[in-house]
Design brief:
The structure is a homotetramer of 422-residue chains.
Chain A (H helix, E strand, L loop, with lengths): L1 E11 L5 E11 L3 H6 L4 E2 L4 H8 L11 H4 L1 H14 L3 E3 L7 H4 L10 H16 L5 E7 L2 H4 L4 H17 L4 E7 L2 H12 L5 E5 L12 H11 L3 E5 L4 H17 L5 E5 L30 H13 L4 E2 L7 H10 L1 H4 L22 H4 L4 H6 L36 H14 L1
Parallel strand pairs in A: 3-10, 4-5, 5-6, 6-7, 7-8, 8-9, 9-10
Antiparallel strand pairs in A: 1-2
Chain lengths: 422, 422, 422, 422
């Protein structure tokens, strides 16, 4: 694939010195490993389920990606926005697109799993070809694992998705959002059969996976299973994710192994999480708004991830295109160019120089935004929450998945349990 | 125009009684006044500049709508999402699309004002025809007025936009986002020449316009100028806006006049605003995230607006499609139907019944979400801010608009002023 | 009475210029009106019931002052601390020392009302004679008024306390803590019969008394009844109290009358109060700690009160001696001397210059403390609360006082009422 | 010493069952070790320097206890209040009463160290004899150690204080407020020469002493040095202190040793501290008010400490007598009696049953206070702070103590350092 990419921007660095950058990039688009091996920074995209939920195309609860087949124009538009924001990876919208998840707890689909996976691949490829991006096929944790199905059963589920990815010739594969390193290893083993590069991310924090396997040990196991890129995604805020990947990196290096590292954190502040991540926060998933990161929080994240040796820097739930653009803008000095979307943005608020009100023009500077501690406008709310912490993990009866809808009796039992806790 | 609209949904009311609603609506789409006269609730859309800024198509600072011509697919998609969320009005994306604004402070355009206004009309009409929605052409306050130009000059600016709206045959007109009732009156006078229904909204709070004209007096003047629908938009949170429109309604009724009422508030909590609204908050416009309303806050707003006798209920900056959907869902019992987008949403979180984790299924109920006081995850931030309050209004030298970019000297003077304040 | 008072201190003003002040004051102690007429600033003391509750000598609930007779050494010590902190008034510890209050709701006393009032006068005089202070006899609102007793009955209660004050020859009288201006007028009328100077304070905010009589009208009525000093005490924070007294002053001046003004606010931040004051806050009285003012908040209060023309500046519930000292220190430049207690305090933290840790020595300056926004260390708590607002006022059955203890049935009814509200 | 102690109280337990307790205790007052060996709970007192600073008798900065000699009536009164609140230990007010501290950084005394130490012993004994309390002589960390003086020099300083304690025949000794376990060991070694029981507390948290010696290792070293009671005091909130002492206990038990355990935490919430404790918080020492614990927080602390096997439960800076009373009230069921001060307090707010306002009577119950999350009334303040963290420890030039006052040049250098950090 040949990509011709021209970009002209004025970069404004910390010292208020203006640097003009004329970029004419005539790249033969390279694979993910070639890029990372060459020391390039790869900007990932953001999470699709939350972004499309807000737009009306994904249902919170099942969180399944049937919109790829049902509402392709909405999915295509979101891909385009992330591309424009600077993403180098179009991840297929195939999160939870395994058959055992698509038909869980009364959820039924108008489309087969295969149709959804295929549609998602086509959309990702279509938009990737419009810019400098690769297509990544993604698989994620399965209800079957939580319900204690066998290794073979779980692997068969991954295999069905992989077959589509191979047929659609994605550029590389990502096994993401695993709470148990064991299931992630199984996924990596299946993905490796394709011969394509494999990335693997767990949704864990510094305390490790739900069996308390440490981040360092998790990473070593994933690398040994064949993953060339390892890291974390979802469940925690950027600060926690960078901290966790640092522990992974230390573990891999101590074991004498090598890998590339990635982070795809939430766009929500979660200093109050326990090991289960934001799922346990009382605000999940419908009252997380006060926790949403600003673009300046994102620039801080990009810098810290980069300083930690993480070169694949993306996002997950809560990311909107402007968050991703902030990552690309922060690292523009290192990368030498700004994303296309920066034509509608100035560095550190410099677009405000054009505002009609003088006191808003006075905010057109880094110093202002970097120091600001934004108010919540919610004086009756606390700043931190107590996570639920039910302590229910794989194998517990309440985690057994079922095809039928949750019954009223089942719900009532859960409501009582929740209320008793308070 | 004939609209056939079929919708089947399960409404779940407070009492957990399930009500099935089968709707087959064969409507001849009626005008805005016929609807309001008949007691219908009209759901407005949300603000486009903030939503498209997050998606990468609008530049914060100038806040101009050239994307209507430049990136029509992005604007069309946002219209579609609001339609799907339940909006009955597709407002043309022509905010700040007057020539004096499009070429302000060094901002130059690849498209003429006329091209932008025409493109915006076409997009709104295209999507409106896909559902049960009207097209409203919108004009807003002008830099010319702030710079003390004459009544004739300001009216000529409105006239240019109106000419496009007439040519494109929009269904009705909105004069919105006026800080001074005088300028709004001028706008209404121009809009009235078209013979189309006219709505007028000020961006004011309970303290009145920037000349301290009270909400009641403002409303009376707008009605006398010919507006059939009056209210407020932008600048304040729903609570403040409903309070202000109540004062308008009381003023109009006291004067023995009649009108319909509308609110299009922010989707940000702003209890700490002064009369200038959220522009004065230190977080404007790049760190407002912690203030974003949840869907449950929106349901509360819809109910309070309706109880106050406001029947045109919409939104402004910060609204995402799910916010609008929440308005339509809250008022579904009164309206008898749910919006199309509710297929991907359950009332009061009932979609969570399908979640894999039992403690999240335990949140599938109104009582849980209604009582929750969401944490910010930001323990180092305050809950309220001190507004800037520079006290600069129409006629002040710093408010004079200029074609040239703000110079470095001008900026430096503003930066010093801002810093001295702290 | 002759007072010889020598004080030598180094005042450190804003500009870091050191001013040595040698004071040898040979004063004939003058009366309260002579002082105020001469333009002197009079520093009041702080509230005794809250301070002694923390020390273990007052019971929250009845809030009665029997400790004056029971534990005189504890009351004497608190008087001494306020004197040392700079108070020019030793108010007799006779709050709620009326017979109808002393025997209310099952509360019985080992001492008669007369014994308590006499002991309180003796203690106040003993300590006042140790320094430059006057003795003020105080009466406060009565359960009888709330229970709709007649004017004669209520006045008779005041008369009993007054008789002691006359016998013990206090220097002036204060009618304080009235929620209804009518009862305060009755009190002033009784106090005036003594021929001593009379001050009168209501526990009201800007909304006026519980019958919605405005602060301005209240003040006019009190002045007309004969009070030479008027103002507010208790129920609200300093900011609110200064605002309220400003309204009183404007009312008195508009009526062509003359008076001196005083404030004795809480030492708690109460931005979230309604007209009933801090009694309605859910934290009253046992969880108010996070609201306690710092000494720097107090200096701000002293300055604002003084700037508003209030020259009798004291405190109420929550005040500890260091709060009062802060008032005296802030106004030392105007008064020309520091209080005795300042020997153990440096202006604006300058005592920290002697701290062993260098980073604490770095805090020995005004700029540091004035800008600091102190954290609560309570991330799970909100910053504002919703007041109770039961809307129960004089005459309501629940406000009828009774000699017998509140019964279990009565309590249960109240508990249910409170819980239903949440 | 013979103590006859009669107390009659109504205990109200969780279940609202009333339990009458008639206590006639005819005790021969026993030593501290006999009590702890017998499984008794010993209630300590609170910190004197903070309490007396608020009352005007201690200067923040030097924090020295000359008031024992200068203002004995104020010190005696505070002892009495703690005794009345339930304290079984009257600790001599000899904190920082070593000669090298009394004459540090320009601080000079009118009294010799010996005079202060003797006066403090006399006051403690006088009040202890009024009730069921022991006298403990206390020594604390020295500027000499921070300035790298020799073991012999430092021990000589402790020896001077000890000589007074022996002469005055205190009941036992406490080495408290040590940041370095090494200095605490030296102190214990000196204290052991007296033959009296020895307690030793460090002002450390879970991260250990300033040389990163873990709590477990610290405790083992103190026990091996001869301390019979070990624990922590000051610097951290109760939650952190209990956690730290648990680690100490685990360390001692793992080493096969035996000890009794004590905690004397702050009465301030400090979840945001680093290893240096509240000294590093920006609010130290003059803006800590929003962090003050409520009485209910104290009851929680008492319960948790007791559950952790800590039987000597006291307090430090920030404690007022009502905080100590709350400890004694919480543990009244275990101890079988209430403190004398409870005559002015009802369990869990039951005194409010006598309040005049019905909605306050509705708060007369445990359930209300235990669930309340108290608001700060400070919407412009954060809930947590960033500690200073200068990383300056023993041996650093800035920590060298000097007899002369801190010079203006020294201050300026510190101010600059502090400002640069922000």
């Amino acid at each position: 694939m040949v990509c011709i990419y021209v970009n002209y921007q004025i970069l404004k660095c910390n010292k208020r010195v203006c640097i003009s950058v004329l970029l004419a990039r005539f790249d033969f688009t390279q694979g993910i490993l070639e890029r990372l091996d060459a020391g390039e920074i790869v900007i990932g995209d953001g999470g699709f389920v939350f972004a499309l939920e807000k737009r009306g195309y994904v249902k919170a609860g099942p969180w399944t990606p049937e919109a790829a087949a049902e509402y392709p124009e909405a999915v295509r538009q979101l891909h385009r926005e992330f591309l424009r924001a600077g993403s180098n990876v179009m991840q297929t919208f195939t999160f939870y697109a395994s058959d055992d998840k698509l038909e869980n707890r009364g959820h039924t689909q108008r489309f087969t799993g295969q149709q959804i996976n295929e549609a998602a691949c086509d959309l990702a490829r279509e938009v990737a070809n419009e810019g400098d991006a690769l297509v990544a096929g993604g698989v994620s944790q399965t209800p079957s694992y939580l319900s204690c199905k066998s290794e073979n059963d779980v692997k068969a589920i991954f295999k069905k998705q992989i077959d589509v990815f191979v047929k659609k010739n994605v550029d590389f594969l990502i096994a993401e959002y695993f709470e148990h390193v064991e299931e992630a290893e199984w996924a990596v083993q299946v993905l490796k059969t394709t011969g394509k590069p494999v990335a693997a991310t767990l949704c864990i924090g510094p305390e490790g996976d739900l069996n308390k396997v440490s981040p360092g040990d998790c990473a070593v196991r994933l690398v040994k299973a064949g993953a060339q890129i390892v890291g974390v995604n979802c469940h925690f805020d950027p600060e926690t994710c960078v901290k966790t990947v640092k522990m992974m990196k230390a573990g891999v290096e101590k074991a004498g192994l090598k890998a590339h590292y990635m982070t795809q954190p939430l766009a929500f502040h979660t200093p109050d999480c326990n090991c289960q991540g934001f799922i346990d926060l009382p605000e999940f998933p419908f009252s997380l708004e006060p926790r949403i990161l600003t673009r300046w929080d994102m620039q801080k994240y990009a810098r810290e991830a980069y300083n930690a040796g993480i070169h694949y820097i993306g996002g997950c739930c809560g990311f909107e295109p402007y968050h991703t653009r902030a990552l690309a803008e922060e690292l523009a000095p290192e990368r030498g160019f700004l994303p296309a979307g920066s034509e509608k943005h100035g560095n550190w608020g410099s677009g405000l120089e054009m505002h009609t009100k003088p006191w808003v023009r006075a905010r057109a500077r880094r110093d202002y935004w970097e120091k600001l501690k934004p108010a919540s406008g919610r004086p009756f709310c606390p700043s931190m929450a107590m996570p639920d912490g039910w302590g229910v993990t794989k194998g517990h009866a309440d985690l057994m998945q079922q095809k039928e809808a949750t019954s009223q009796e089942q719900l009532k039992a859960l409501f009582n349990k929740e209320t008793a806790r308070c």
